[in-house]
Design goal:
This protein has 14 helices and 8 strands. By secondary structure, it is α/β, with parallel strands linked by helices. The protein has 2 domains: 256 residues, Alpha/Beta hydrolase fold, catalytic domain (Rossmann fold, 3-Layer(aba) Sandwich); 61 residues, no CATH class. A hairpin with a 2-residue loop joins strand 1 and strand 2. The N terminus and C terminus are likely disordered.
């Protein structure tokens, strides 16, 4: 009786107990991770939101993956998934779309997430994308987006609005539902779905037809024995892990790692193409038939005497000195110069025409 009386006095003096934050798992992985993670401020219009970034341990610049939260917000599990993405060689950045709000349970967090205005969500995602491409020196300019549940639906929608995206990974989110949006998709969309999720999977067949008709790439995969949210419920650190979801999660990660590798290779291909283009101009590419060096050999062998129309080419400075890389003029005497070639004469307006 005395203990109960004492407890009541302490409660009265201390005031009402604060609402407990929605508990989640994932902190253990974050605390043990060797990778650098940090919170940053991102300016979104007149607002300022927080963003969570995890960097991979790489010596070269890497792509950035924009991570969109599920209905529970920017949870510890989502941040641990960002660390897992960084472990696989990409920079992961997750904006806090709820802007620091805390909730007693998942239901309250879900209601707040669904209540977010679409215009605000898009503005925050655009601001985060711009931050990723301009304020992160370790990024190589390649941007992709992924999302889970509510974030998976938002991922598909965002792929219709941001032309800077190179890939979109939608996890058990609703697919595109009309031809107008399908035509606006700017990048390949890869879907990850659970077999026991009829609500979401019912949108896949129509989306496949719409995307095919629009000439867009949509690659959905349904994982056997998995339910909705299998990336979370199949997490080994989840106290309530489900075996079917765990298998699906492992299979999904195997596929996702391969896709992330292809995303990283895209930057390498662009670099190789640029190098090849420069080498081709200098005449070091074997299959560049009419390089500058080849043209000089033609000129030295009396080529200009046989083709008088090309005789003035010899006196022109190289294309690099004039700015830009241009292919040499075609050797055929009857060839018509292409637009952009220095021999292409634009039509002079009548008021500037010579008499």
């Amino acid at each position: 009786m005395q203990r109960l009386f004492f407890s009541l006095i302490v409660t009265f003096l201390a005031g009402p107990l604060p609402a407990q934050e929605f508990k989640d798992f994932g902190k253990e992985r974050l605390n043990k991770s060797p990778r650098h993670a940090e919170w940053v401020d991102i300016k979104s219009g007149e607002r300022k939101i927080k963003g969570f970034i995890v960097y991979p341990e790489r010596k070269e610049k890497t792509p950035v993956v924009l991570v969109i939260q599920e209905i529970f917000g920017l949870t510890d599990w989502l941040r641990s998934l960002c660390d897992e993405l960084a472990e696989n060689g990409v920079i992961a950045i997750a904006p806090d779309l709820l802007n620091g709000q805390k909730f007693e349970d998942g239901d309250a967090a879900g209601k707040a997430t669904y209540a977010l205005p679409k215009e605000q969500v898009k503005a925050d995602l655009d601001a985060t994308s711009d931050y990723a491409l301009t304020k992160i020196p370790a990024a190589n300019g390649i941007l992709a987006v992924c999302g889970f549940c509510w974030g998976g639906t938002t991922t598909f929608q965002y792929a219709t609005t941001n032309p800077k995206l190179k890939a979109a990974y939608s996890f058990y989110g609703l697919a595109v539902g009309n031809a107008e949006d399908a035509a606006k998709v700017v990048c390949p969309v890869y879907g990850f779905y659970g077999e026991n999720d009829a609500r979401v999977n019912a949108t896949i067949p129509k989306a496949e037809e719409l995307m095919k008709a629009a000439g867009k790439k949509y690659d959905p995969v349904i994982y056997k024995g998995a339910g909705h949210g299998f990336m979370r419920s199949g997490e080994p650190n989840n106290p309530n892990v489900r075996e079917g979801d765990k298998r699906a999660r492992d299979e999904a990660w195997t596929r996702w790692k391969k896709l992330l590798g292809e995303l990283a290779e895209e930057h390498c291909v662009k670099v190789v193409q640029l190098i090849y283009r420069r080498k081709a101009y200098e005449g070091t590419a074997k299959d560049y038939e009419f390089s500058r060096r080849t043209m000089e050999e033609h000129w030295q062998s009396g080529y200009n005497d046989a083709h008088p129309r090309a005789s003035d080419v010899r006196r022109r400075p190289p294309a690099r000195a004039r700015g830009g890389f241009r292919q040499p003029f075609c050797h055929r005497p009857d060839a018509r110069p292409r637009r952009g070639h220095y021999r292409y004469r634009r039509r002079i307006p009548a008021i500037h025409a010579r008499p």
